[in-house]
Amino acid sequence: MAAPRGSPCGTQSTPSAGGLADSSLDGHLPMAQLEEGSYLCEIECTVTTGLEQIAKEEAERLAGSRVSAERGKIAIQLQNTNALKLLSLHSVDNLFVVVGRSSVALSGEKKSDLIQVTKSFLHADWKRAVDVWKCFQPSPVEHDLECRPMDSWTRSEMCSLMLNTSQHDAASDQPSHPLNFPSFRVSCHRVGANHSFSSVEAAGYLGAAVSSYLGWPVSLRQYDVEVNLNVDNCLVCITLTLTRASLYRRNIVHFGPTTLKATICYGLLRFAEIEDGEVVVDPMCGTSAIAVEGVICFPGCFFVTGENYPEAIDRSYQNMQPRGRPADVVRWDACHLPLRDQSVDAFVSDLVHAETTVVSTPGYSARWQGRPSAAPAEQCCCPKTQVRCQLLSK
After folding, report:
1. CA-CA distance, 347 to 72, in Å (whole number)?
2. Cα–chain-centroid distance for residue 198?
3. Looking at the predicted structure, is the pLDDT value of residue 156 above 70?
4. 26/310 Cα distance (integer angstroms)
5. What integer pLDDT is reported at residue 371 of this predicted model?
6. CA geometry: angle 210, 74, 286, nearest 5 deg
7. Runs of H (alpha helix) within 215-348
8. Which of 144, 201, 207, 332 could make an SS bond with 197 (beta carbons 3.0 to 4.6 A apart)?
């Protein structure tokens, strides 16, 4: 995970308050542009490796701010009131709100290192991070999400919280602590070989700290909030998961054994640089995942998809029916395309499984032993353009 510049490994630095108010990092909006009552939040998005630049450009257009990109993810800083817009990004898989970042000094002694990893985040701005998380929930959240410091509770209240029971000291004159706080679990992801602790141990320490500091009960299965602890050598980042399911599943109704993720389909179409008014063909469409994404993101184009496997054609029709957009599915042999010469502007397809998949279904004639020749596509392509056929590597 990225850390504030000037914080080398092995030195203790002051952690950012959840990545929610530090305007010194690249990609932050100027404070003068903030609306009254709003604040900056940092959202991390996971991206298919190799498509980071595509995701960065899309996020910059949507969020109106600079975006930083790393291998497999991008980081966006924007006003909390605009965070929900990120759900419309087509190139990202999952969203996380950053609670805090820090560079910690690891001594090599397990207990000391675990304390260093967890304690610097107890005073981060959890309240703002939880407020952002609350905006992403599909229904109104009934939980009390106030983050109360641990020293504001009585001993009996703390015991009740830790035991997940409503029994309080009747003689106490302090107000009883509400037990409708959200349940949570902690997941730890580590990068680096010099850690003295395991991921399970780090998750346990952070879970105990969160439960003690915020009063949230632990639930490994029926949880409301997923807390993520990411340790990259000596750089530590804590995030809250905003999406329960990956966004690449939102457009496909019927999946097949070779269905591409919607996020990868969007990346292929962006790489092909298609424009409004063009005819785009996927000669081996499978379940038409590329065309489904295309009619949503590029409504000014016409998509034609073809397949030789009967069940794949049925799935393609089922995936295309809810769209109501210009597209069609045809059964054909990709080596003999039934298309007029110079009638296609772009070919966009995934040919990985054409090399490796052998279908034993009776009546399925095309068994690919290698990538088919590009000659049929070249013949059908318009003279003003080149054949734009995107091949994914294994």
Report:
1. 27
2. 25
3. no
4. 51
5. 46
6. 110
7. 262-272, 289-297, 310-320
8. 201
Q: How many CB atoms lie within 10 A of CB 5?
A: 9
pLDDT tens for residues 343-368? 888 888 887 654 443 333 333 333 33
User: What strands lie across the sheet with 346-347, from one edge to the other?
Assistant: 327-331, 302-307, 279-282, 346-347
How far is the C-alpha of 44 from the C-alpha of 242, rounded, in Å? 10
Please give the span between the terminal C-alpha atoms of the chain, in angstroms, as a whole number: 26
How high is the pLDDT of residue 144? 54
Q: Read off the tokens for 325.
A: 């957009």
* pLDDT 10s digits, 231-245: 988 889 999 999 988
The string of pLDDT tens digits covering residues 85-141 is 999 999 999 999 999 888 888 888 888 888 888 876 766 788 889 889 989 987 766
> What CA–CA distance (Å, rounded) separates 183 from 133?
13
Question: Cβ(341)–Cβ(380) under 8 Å?
Answer: yes
Phi, psi of 256 (to 5 degrees): -120, 180
Number of H helices, E strands in the chain: 10, 11
| 215 CA to centre of own chain | 28
Nearest to 393 by CA among 353, 347, 335, 359: 353
CA distances from 242 to 11, 93, 120, 226 (A): 31, 11, 23, 8
Cα gap 240→126, rounded to integer Å: 10
